[in-house]
Design goal:
With 223 residues, the protein is of the alpha+beta class. Helix content is 64%, strand content 10%. It has a 4-stranded mixed beta sheet with strand order 2-1-3-4. Helix 1 packs across helix 5 and helix 2 packs across helix 4. It is rod-shaped and about 160 Å long. The chain starts with 7 loop residues before the first helix and ends in a 19-residue tail after the last helix. The relative contact order is 0.08.
Length: 223
């Protein structure tokens, strides 16, 4: 068949079909490229998001690590303070127990010294030394003379009496008029001195650093 005999309509149809195929191929190629670009972009976004999330997670982990490290000294200090307090409590209990059992010191001399310490600090010429019933019977009236010698002040009158209430160990000193009272019971003195003593004990035994503080009065006026 020659070109002259070719059907023009058929030729046009074939050209239209061929053009449609070319356009379809171009569209398919563009679609494929766009799909590949979309996939690549999605992968990039996923990778970027993953890196951002990892960076945020690392930053949060570091923040928490620093917070934990910051609390370590505080927790160590709290635990140390708790241990120190327990040790000091045991020392305090042991001291109270020794005072109650009057262990490690001459009780009579101690009571006389406590009474003389109270009397020697104030003006006056008449005092009453109040003791527990058992101490009153054991120490007797001779205690007043011992205290008088320790005070070293002439003209001081003293009487030994049984305390109206519980005393335990030690002595309560009153002036004759009953206006001033000095509580020199053993455990009462320990409690007055304990804030200072606990600091010294802690410092000397390396339980805690030494801390300067006011020393408590040896005697405390109670009334």
């Amino acid at each position: 068949m020659t070109a002259a005999n070719t059907d023009p309509q058929r030729v046009l149809t074939e050209e239209i079909i061929a053009d449609a195929r070319r356009q379809a191929e171009r569209l398919s190629a563009r679609t494929r490229r766009e799909a590949e670009d979309a996939v690549r972009k999605a992968r990039d976004e996923i990778a970027k998001d993953r890196e951002q999330r990892l960076a945020a997670a690392r930053a949060e982990a570091e923040r928490r690590r620093l917070l934990i490290l910051a609390t370590v000294p505080v927790e160590v200090g709290r635990m140390r303070a708790t241990r120190v307090e327990k040790v000091l409590e045991s020392i305090h209990e042991a001291a109270c127990d020794r005072l109650r059992r009057r262990e490690g010191f001459d009780y009579r001399q101690t009571v006389a010294a406590l009474a003389a310490d109270a009397v020697g600090r104030v003006q006056g010429d008449a005092f009453v030394l109040e003791l527990a019933e058992a101490d009153r019977a054991a120490l007797g009236d001779g205690l007043a003379e011992e205290v008088r010698r320790l005070v070293g002040r002439g003209g001081v009158r003293m009487t030994v009496a049984q305390a109206a209430g519980p005393v335990g160990g030690g002595v309560i000193v009153r002036d004759a008029a009953g206006r001033r009272v000095w509580d020199n019971r053993l455990e009462a003195r320990l409690e007055r001195f304990w804030p200072m003593l606990r600091r010294e004990i802690a410092a000397r035994t390396a339980l805690a650093p030494a801390a300067a503080g006011p020393k408590p009065d040896v005697l405390r006026k109670e009334s």
